[in-house]
C-alpha cells in the first residue's frame, strides 16, 4: 500500500505550545491503519520516555531541527525493563528494552538523537556491573530511513532486527555488538564510533538463502584514542554478511579485522567483505584469511531497494525535506 500524497503535520513541544507534550502522545494520535504520511515535528528538548511505533502506525516521520538538541532517551536494559505508569510494555530481554522501538513500516526519522542512557557494563570481581544489553533503537519494520540521526549507547545500541533500512549521515556509537540483527541495511556517509573494546557488528543471517546483510559505504570509523581494541564484526548467525566499502578506519580497529565468535566453523560460512577501505586501521595483509574482497554486487541501492518499478527508497527521499520554517 502506498501513502496518500497529502501530508499531515502535528507538533510536539514540552512547553505545551505544540499539539502534544510527548512524542508517544503524538504517535498514539496517528490512526490505526494509517495511509497518510504524518510528520511529527519534535521541538528541541530531552524527552525522557520510551517510544513505541506499533505495526498499525505506518508512514510516520519524526523530524527535529538539530539532532544534538532533540533527544529521545530512556534507560531500559535486557535485565531491567521499566516503563512510566500507563506505558505499553513491548516484550522482555534485549528485544524489548529499546528506548525507541519501530514496528510500523515506512518510518522516517531526521535530525533526532536516539539514546539508551544506561551506563557501560563492567566486569567486577567475576560479576557484571552496569547495563549489559541496552538498545537505543530497535527496528522491526520494512522500508525505514534515517537521515542525520544519532544513536547513542554502549552494548547493542542499534538493533536492526528485521526489514530493509537506509541510514545516511548518521552517527552511531557503542562498544559490544552495537550494530546487530538480521535486517537488510545500507549505511552511507555514516560515522561509526567505538567507545571501548568490542565489536562493531553482529549480523545474524542464518542461511545462504537469506538476502539480509549490513553494507557500510563511504563511512568513517573512529575510536577513543587507543590502538587495535575493536573488531569490525563477529557472526551472530553462521552466515552473517557485512560489507565495508570505501571506508576510513582509524587505529582502533584490530588488524585481524574480524572475529569468529569462538567457533572456527563460522569461518567457512560468514561473509565479511572489505572493498577499497583505507586508513591506519586497514591492513589487507594482516586480515583474517577468511575475509573477502569481491563486494561490488552490494554497493548499489538495489541491495536494499530491488524493485525497480516501485522504488521505496526514492519515495522516502522525496519526504526528506526541512519540516520547520
TrEMBL record:
Enzyme class, broadest EC rank: hydrolase
Catalytic residue list: 177
InterPro entries in alphabetical order: Pectin_lyas_fold, Pectin_lyase_fold/virulence, Pectinesterase_Asp_AS, Pectinesterase_cat
EC number: 3.1.1.11
Alphabetized UniProt keyword annotations: Aspartyl esterase, Cell wall, Hydrolase, Secreted
Pfam families: Pectinesterase (PF01095)
PROSITE patterns found in the cross-reference section: PECTINESTERASE_2
Domain of life: Eukaryota
Catalysed transformations (reactions): [(1->4)-alpha-D-galacturonosyl methyl ester](n) + n H2O = [(1->4)-alpha-D-galacturonosyl](n) + n methanol + n H(+)
Gene Ontology molecular function terms on file: pectinesterase activity
Localization annotation: Secreted, Cell wall
Name of the protein in its database record: Pectinesterase
Source organism per UniProt: Arachis hypogaea
Amino acid at each position: 500500500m502506498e501513502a496518500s500524497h497529502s501530508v499531515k503535520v502535528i507538533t510536539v513541544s514540552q512547553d505545551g505550545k505544540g499539539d502534544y507534550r510527548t512524542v508517544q502522545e503524538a504517535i498514539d494520535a496517528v490512526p490505526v491503519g494509517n495511509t497518510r504520511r504524518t510528520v511529527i515535528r519534535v521541538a528541541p528538548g530531552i524527552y525522557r520516555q520510551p517510544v513505541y511505533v506499533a505495526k498499525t502506525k505506518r508512514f510516520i516521520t519524526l523530524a527535529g531541527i538539530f539532532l544534538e538538541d532533540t533527544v529521545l532517551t530512556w534507560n531500559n536494559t535486557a535485565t531491567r525493563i521499566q516503563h512510566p505508569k500507563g506505558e505499553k510494555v513491548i516484550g522482555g530481554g534485549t528485544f524489548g528494552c529499546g528506548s525507541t522501538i519501530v514496528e510500523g513500516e515506512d518510518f522516517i526519522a531526521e535530525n533526532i538523537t536516539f539514546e539508551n542512557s544506561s551506563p557501560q557494563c563492567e566486569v567486577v570481581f567475576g560479576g557484571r556491573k552496569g547495563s549489559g544489553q541496552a538498545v537505543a533503537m530497535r527496528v522491526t519494520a520494512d522500508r525505514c530511513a534515517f537521515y542525520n540521526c544519532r544513536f547513542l549507547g554502549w552494548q547493542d545500541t542499534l538493533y536492526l532486527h528485521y526489514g530493509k533500512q537506509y541510514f545516511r549521515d548518521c552517527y552511531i556509537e557503542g562498544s559490544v555488538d552495537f550494530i546487530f540483527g538480521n535486517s537488510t541495511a545500507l549505511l552511507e556517509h555514516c560515522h561509526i564510533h567505538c567507545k571501548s573494546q568490542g565489536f562493531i557488528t553482529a549480523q545474524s543471517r542464518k542461511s545462504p538463502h537469506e538476502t539480509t546483510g549490513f553494507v557500510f559505504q563511504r563511512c568513517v570509523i573512529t575510536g577513543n584514542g587507543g590502538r587495535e581494541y575493536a573488531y569490525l564484526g563477529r557472526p551472530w548467525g553462521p552466515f552473517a554478511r557485512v560489507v565495508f566499502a570505501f571506508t576510513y578506519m582509524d587505529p582502533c580497529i584490530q588488524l585481524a579485522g574480524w572475529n569468529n565468535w569462538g567457533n572456527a566453523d563460522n569461518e567457512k560460512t560468514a561473509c565479511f567483505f572489505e572493498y577499497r577501505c583505507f586508513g591506519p586501521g586497514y591492513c589487507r595483509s594482516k586480515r583474517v584469511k577468511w575475509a573477502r574482497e569481491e563486494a561490488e554486487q552490494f554497493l548499489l541501492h538495489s541491495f536494499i531497494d530491488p524493485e525497480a518499478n516501485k522504488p521505496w527508497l526514492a519515495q522516502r527521499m522525496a519526504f526528506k525535506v526541512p519540516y520547520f520554517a
